[in-house]
Write a structure and sequence with these properties.
The complex is a heterodimer of chains A (53) and B (445).
Chain A lengths: L1 H16 L36
Chain B lengths: L1 H4 L7 H13 L5 H30 L2 H13 L3 H18 L2 H18 L4 H17 L9 H10 L3 H26 L39 H8 L4 H23 L4 H20 L4 H6 L4 H17 L2 H13 L3 H19 L1 H14 L4 H16 L10 H12 L6 H27 L4
The chains are: A mainly alpha (53), B mainly alpha (445).
Chain lengths: 53, 445
């Protein structure tokens, strides 16, 4: 069993060494719909394209 | 001679096969003996072939390319650290695959790394030398990394776990000494600072931000590593992790299976099959590339070499060696280790280590030594054929392959230059390994 433990002891660090480096957190995509914002369409409001002012 | 010369680039199995056929036709080797020979070599050949198939699969998923990138990342701008990591890479490649495969895989990787780093020719040599020497010598620690070792192991009847217990520590020390001596020899040629990769090289970057250039006195060239990095984006890391895990567990499984009495080749072939299947399920890639690239001829090569050695044994060559060395080898364990190690080193450097290790092993089994002495002499035989054989390029097939790869990559290296370096590093590291083998095995035998 000595050989088994030698290979495992060498293999496990090798496995982790070859992992891809952690990627940086992706920049927040602002076009993504925020679920915490009110959905105006569901509430019955529709965009008319007119200037509210 | 034809195996080493290989006129018109013929496969080494061709002259070996012709020689074996002639010996069988001439009746020197009885036909009945060929079955015994086939039984002795088949397990070793299947194990090595399975290992090569696994390395082909890993290559196809970008494993070695990724490893090359990581080596540059870990070196972090230090030429000395790069030297250390190339040693580690070559050691691990041989440990997890085999010596000839390791040379075939790591030498192009090292050449690629050195070209990317814009090193001058004299700066490349330390890395190339240490890579070749460490990759070849690293087949000694665990037995399963070398075809000849595996065949010899079967002849002697030593369990692979016992082999590792007795050999791992002394040969590791020998490899460390070998690498350190290469470092001392080339110390002035190893650049202090080299190029580095930016920490974010795994994400798309502009060409001019690829490298942080630490050496102001060198011109910045276009780096082909850009292509490597672009391909790296296609690596499927889920598949990558799974495949690396399978390779590690298959390698460990060889030893576990041996403890449980399972044939080594069965575990090796199962591991290779699982890896091929996983890749097929994941990417849809079949087995065509594996079938095409695998060196099936090594079955003929190993069989033929064994037939030739068996013929030498039958005509009395091994009996001659037994008569000459039996008395001195039987005297004590230190005699057995030093004489066998030295003798096989000499024979390997003249005739190549594959016939040398087989002749050495058959001779030892004929000597009527007690089990402990015979096993020690066998282990010294392996040290001589894996480490001592590195003095001349003819000593191992892996070194000849390495010289050939350098030649086709237009890296000039004469046999004289190789010999100058090897004579400085190999005899001392072989002697240290043999002595440490003696002291280490005293704990067990």
């Amino acid at each position: 069993m000595f050989g088994f433990f030698v290979v495992i002891l060498v293999g496990i660090p090798l496995y982790f060494l070859l992992q891809p480096p952690r990627r940086a957190e992706p920049f927040p995509n602002t076009s993504f719909q925020n679920k915490y914002l009110l959905d105006l369409k569901k509430l019955g409001y529709h965009e008319t394209g007119e200037n509210i002012d | 001679m034809f195996i080493i010369w290989r006129p018109r680039g013929i496969n080494e199995a061709v002259p070996a096969g012709i020689g074996a056929c002639l010996l069988i036709i001439a009746g020197v080797v009885p036909l009945a003996d060929t079955l015994y020979i086939l039984d002795t070599i088949s397990g070793a050949v299947i194990t090595i072939l399975s290992t090569i198939i696994m390395s082909l699969i890993l290559d196809s998923i970008g494993f070695f390319q990724w490893t090359a990138l990581n080596i540059i990342r870990w070196a972090n701008g230090s030429g000395t650290l790069l030297f250390f990591y190339i040693c580690l890479l070559c050691f691990l490649m041989t440990l997890f695959f085999n010596n000839d495969g390791s040379i075939l895989i790591t030498t192009p990787i090292i050449i690629q790394i050195l070209s990317l780093l814009n090193l001058k020719m004299h700066e490349k040599l330390p890395y190339l030398f240490v890579g070749a020497l460490v990759a070849t010598a690293s087949s000694a620690p665990i037995a399963v990394s070398n075809l000849a070792n595996l065949i010899a192991l079967k002849i002697v009847g030593l369990d692979i776990n016992d082999y590792v217990l007795l050999m791992f520590v002394p040969t590791l020390l020998g490899i460390f000494i070998l690498a350190f001596l290469v470092y001392l020899y080339f110390k002035k040629d190893i650049p202090k600072k080299i190029l580095t990769l930016p920490p974010s090289y795994h994400v798309p970057v502009q060409v001019d931000t690829m490298f942080h250039y630490k050496q102001e006195n060198r011109p910045v060239r276009h780096h082909p590593l850009m292509d490597v990095v672009q391909e790296d984006r296609h690596i499927d890391f889920s598949l990558f992790r799974l495949c690396v895990g399978i390779v590690i567990f298959t390698r460990a499984g060889l030893f576990l299976g041996s403890s449980l009495g399972l044939p080594m080749e069965l575990i090796a072939i199962t591991g290779a099959f699982i890896l091929v299947w996983v890749r097929w399920k994941w990417t849809g890639t079949g087995v065509r590339d594996v079938v095409k690239k695998s060196p099936w001829h090594i079955l003929i090569f190993a069989f033929s070499i064994y037939v030739v050695i068996h013929a030498l044994h039958l005509i009395g060559f091994t009996s001659l060696l037994v008569d000459q060395f039996q008395y001195i080898i039987a005297q004590s364990h230190i005699h057995a280790i030093m004489i066998t190690g030295g003798l096989v080193t000499v024979i390997s450097n003249i005739f190549n280590n594959i016939p040398a290790v087989m002749i050495g092993t058959i001779t030892l089994t004929e000597m009527g030594l007690d089990t402990g002495t015979m096993q020690l002499a066998y282990l010294a035989n392996i040290v001589g054929s894996d480490l001592g054989a590195l003095i001349s390029p003819m000593g191992t097939l892996a070194t000849l392959l390495w010289m050939y790869i350098l030649k086709i990559n237009k890296i000039p290296l004469s046999w004289g230059k190789y010999f100058t370096v090897a004579i400085y590093v190999v005899p001392l590291s072989t002697a240290v390994t043999l002595f440490s083998l003696y002291f280490w095995t005293r704990l067990f035998i």
